Amino acid sequence: MKILTVCGMGIGTSILLKMNTEKALKALGASADVEASDIGSARGAARTVDIVLISHDLAEQLGDVPAKVIEIQNFLSVDEISQKLAPEV
Amino acid sequence: MDLLDALKSIETGQHATNWREAIRLAGKGLVESGATTDEYTDEMIEAVEQNGPYIVIAPGLALAHSRPSPAVLRAGLSWVGLTEPVEFGHATNDPVRLIIGLAALDHDAHLEVMSTLALALSDETRFERLLGATSPGEVRALLAESAGN
């Protein structure tokens, strides 16, 4: 399974989200490749992944992609990420 | 580079009347510590104008940043604690009490710092104490405590 974490620039929030997603996967006993991306390249990158984790504002910019798009509100909350990922992994 | 080395500027008890002013304070910290030029501050504001307030990544916390650019002289972080919170226009995480400014030279070099920061902020009790910290010394002590765990 591949997961893409997305932010505007690909250096700040998406990296934090990637780290906390890896923690969430560990807590769920699941494994996946997690990559961080900026919104500019996310549309292309989203074609090759199963799940996209993204904020609400940027989800509107991303539009329709083949991957499952999950909106995250608190990027620091491993609990929120775990709960939203649990049905998918 | 560890988090406390990267965090060259810590200001608490600051005042801003809107999100642009709040980001400017974070930019000022980066400029004064030699991490960026003034252009980077403008770039951080433009990032929010273009992409929306997604940088408010958790309740009360904005991670202000733009992409690596000539305006970044070296990697660094700045910390601005506000006395009165400001609205960034985020649906769930407003109002903002803490702005962390981030400048990076490339996409990978600052991973260690981000990892330490994520760890420090992931504990809810410590996060609340960091948001309410009233002196730079208190912030440093709380971050050092987290790094030692």
Overview in brief:
The complex is a heterodimer of chains A (89) and B (149). By secondary structure, chain A is of the alpha/beta class.
SS content category of chain B: alpha/beta
What Rg of chain B, in angstroms, do the CA atoms define?
Answer: 14 Å
Q: Work out the number of β strands of chain B.
A: 5
Listing every helix as H and every strand as E from the N terminus to the C terminus, the arrangement of chain B reads HEHHEEEEHHH
By oligomeric state, this entry counts as: heterodimer
Which strand order do you get reading across the main beta sheet of chain A?
Answer: 2-1-3-4
Number of DSSP-assigned strands of chain A: 4
Strand content of chain A: 15-25%
Q: What is the CATH architecture descriptor of chain B?
A: 3-Layer(aba) Sandwich
Helix content of chain A: 40-55%
What does this structure look like?
The complex is a heterodimer of chains A (89) and B (149). Chain A contains 4 helices and 4 strands. Chain A is of the alpha/beta class and 89 residues long. Chain A has one domain (2-74): Response regulator (Rossmann fold). In chain A, strands 2-1-3-4 form a 4-stranded parallel beta sheet. In chain A, helix 3 (56-62) links the parallel strand 3 (51-54) and strand 4 (68-71). In chain A, helix 1 crosses helix 4 (78-85). Chain A is globular and about 30 Å long. The N and C termini of chain A lie close together (8 Å). Chain B is α/β, with parallel strands linked by helices. Chain B has a single domain, classed as Mannitol-specific EII, Chain A (3-Layer(aba) Sandwich). Chain B has 6 helices and 5 strands, in the order αβααββββααα. In chain B, strands 1-4-5-3-2 form a 5-stranded mixed beta sheet. The two termini of chain B are 18 Å apart. The model of chain B has no long low-confidence stretch (mean pLDDT 92). The A-B interface holds A 7-13, 15-17, 19-20, 38-39, 55-58, 61, 73-78 and B 47, 50-55, 57-59, 61, 63, 65-68, 90-93, 102, 104, 107, 110-111, 114-115, 117-118, 121-122, 127.
